[in-house]
Amino acid sequence: MSLELGPVHHWMYKKIKTTEARESSIANVFKGKYGQEADDVLNKVYEKYPQSNPDTPLEELLEDVPIHQGIQDLIIKSETREAATIAAFCEKYGDEGKELAIKAAHDHGVECGKKAVQESGGNGCTASRAFELLSNNLCDGMPCDRGAQVKTESDTRTTWDHTDCIHESLWKEAGASFEVMCELVTSWIAGFGEGVNPQIKYKREKAIAFGDSECISTYEISE
């Protein structure tokens, strides 16, 4: 089968691989702390949600399926497996597991932010540029979904919103807490902003997971 893949398809695949890398980074933190015990937890998760090979070319992954459907399936697999992993660690280690996962997500976000700046050739970033880089790395559904939408934008403060959470059903299907997964992803977003520019602070003003009608987030450069 010959696939006509364009930049948007590889852009989406990069975002999917970021989700997978975050999951792997969190898993490594648990393995470093709990050793074989954490490996046993992960093996049970991977029996149901097999790991993917991040080095597999997108063309090979989509060889036998329509492009749109194939990319959507990759999103579902990556987000469901990550949520199942977090759910398993939280079940095993309770609040300690939750806090460890959230901290690991933050640290991974910092590294991703630093890498994003290096790849873009910039030394310092405005709040609006930080959000642009975030959008190039954070998987937020397909391009046809209503992902994060900018509400206000400036060099020092950029705010965006979601009117629906496109992750909720996948997280819940995997048995993960909606609230915990929301905290984990927003911790990653906060870390990403710090990695892009240490002066950037992230604020989650509203969150559907915590009972609000919408999600509102802000990157702001502090003096």
Order of helices and strands: HHHHHEEHHEE
- What's the rounded overall pLDDT mean? 93
Q: What is the CATH topology descriptor?
A: H-NOX domain
Report low-confidence residues grouped into runs of 5 or more: none
Counted beta strands: 4
| Structural domain tally | 1
Q: State the major sheet.
A: 4 strands, antiparallel
Please tell me what the overall shape is: globular
Rg result = 17 Å
CATH architecture: Alpha-Beta Complex
Strand order of the largest sheet: 1-2-4-3
N-to-C span:
54 Å
β-sheet strand percentage: 5-15%
SS class: alpha+beta
Task: Give the structure's gist in a few sentences.
This protein is of the alpha+beta class. It has helices spanning 7-34, 36-48, 58-61, 67-120, 127-135, 168-173, 178-196; strands at 149-153, 157-162, 200-206, 215-221.
Q: Would you kindly provide a written description of the structure presented here, covering whatever features stand out?
A:
The protein is α+β, with helices and mostly antiparallel strands and about 220 residues long. It has a single domain, classed as H-NOX domain (Alpha-Beta Complex), CATH 3.90.1520. Helices cover about 60% and strands about 10% of the residues. It contains seven helices and four strands. The protein has helices at about 5-35, 35-50, 60, 65-120, 125-135, 170-175, 180-195; strands at about 150-155, 155-160, 200-205, 215-220. It has a four-stranded antiparallel beta sheet, covered by helices on one side. It is globular.
